[in-house]
Amino acid sequence: MTAEIIDGKAFAARLRGEVAEQVAVLKRDHGITPGLAVVLVGEDPASQVYVRNKHKQTLEAGMESFEHRLPAETPEAELLDLVGRLNADPAVHGILVQLPLPDHIDAEKVIAAIDPDKDVDGFHVSNVGRLATGQAALVPCTPLGCLMLLRDRLGSLSGREAVVIGRSNIVGKPMAQLLLRDSATVTIAHSRTRDIEAVVRRAEIVIAAVGRPRMVTGDWLRPGATVIDVGINRIEDPEAGKTRLVGDCDFESCAAVAGAITPVPGGVGPMTIACLLANTLTATCRAAG
Ligand code: GUN
């Protein structure tokens, strides 16, 4: 079997287009322009790339983008003060503090300071609890993007066997909650799971979110499974004499067994910012009542 490639890049472009259309309607009919504030502390190169892309795509969607770049040595109190001001600013509908934060800043404390109704990352415990209890929540962007790709490919997820590999707060745990909300049968596998290959082999849906390059190989998969690869790992490529990006799945061997698979890059990655824009629109609409 050769898997169908799930084109996350094209799906994300469509989603951004839909968000832009709704932003235009909101402006025309209600005079409201959604505003997204992104806070970057320090100079982590990967974070700088993300923040630049977010800024560009926010503007392209017709939204306002407020960028706050702070030096790495910014005191925690100063960052908390900025979050407080963004919470109070009516032009700001969504707030994202880019992670990781420098070591001297307590990320949990910063996330807790964000107004849950502006928490477009969905990391605040109020949103985590709302998602877990089936209330209207802002949902973390990467798992939300994975869910959209799965629904698009499979239709109803009800009763399907899903295995999430990885138990992070940002991807694994919310992914499991979203699948459960769609009535899938959900297992979370992780570094302590016994015979992880056998657990993954049961799954019609596999979500790999561990951050270990090419960990999942084709022999782990049930034939025809739908595989969503969240991993973005930079590895040395001695043949090409440079580095390249690979996922948590070994693409060639997995694509030979799976029914469908997301590539890296061009799979889940572009969905994250598109879902961030969708969350900002959701937060704006909820704020407007
Ligand atoms: N760093 C890497 N991914 C993310 C994300 O989705 N949100 C935030 N805030 N920081 C990140």
Automatic annotation (TrEMBL):
Gene3D superfamilies: Leucine Dehydrogenase, chain A, domain 1, NAD(P)-binding Rossmann-like Domain. Residues 140-286 form the Tetrahydrofolate dehydrogenase/cyclohydrolase NAD(P)-binding domain. Pathway: One-carbon metabolism; tetrahydrofolate interconversion. Residues 6-121 form the Tetrahydrofolate dehydrogenase/cyclohydrolase catalytic domain. Keywords: Amino-acid biosynthesis, Histidine biosynthesis, Hydrolase, Methionine biosynthesis, Multifunctional enzyme, NADP, One-carbon metabolism, Oxidoreductase, Purine biosynthesis. It catalyses: (6R)-5,10-methylene-5,6,7,8-tetrahydrofolate + NADP(+) = (6R)-5,10-methenyltetrahydrofolate + NADPH; (6R)-5,10-methenyltetrahydrofolate + H2O = (6R)-10-formyltetrahydrofolate + H(+). PROSITE patterns: THF_DHG_CYH_1 (PS00766), THF_DHG_CYH_2 (PS00767). One of its GO terms (biological process) is methionine biosynthetic process. One of its GO terms (molecular function) is methenyltetrahydrofolate cyclohydrolase activity. Its EC number is 1.5.1.5, 3.5.4.9. NADP(+) binds at G166, R167, S168, I232. Signal peptide: none annotated. The keyword Hydrolase applies. GO terms for cellular component: cytosol. The keyword Amino-acid biosynthesis applies. Belongs to the tetrahydrofolate dehydrogenase/cyclohydrolase family. Homodimer. Catalyzes the oxidation of 5,10-methylenetetrahydrofolate to 5,10-methenyltetrahydrofolate and then the hydrolysis of 5,10-methenyltetrahydrofolate to 10-formyltetrahydrofolate. HAMAP family: THF_DHG_CYH. This is Bifunctional protein FolD. It comes from Rhodosalinus sediminis. The lineage of its organism: Bacteria, Pseudomonadati, Pseudomonadota, Alphaproteobacteria, Rhodobacterales.
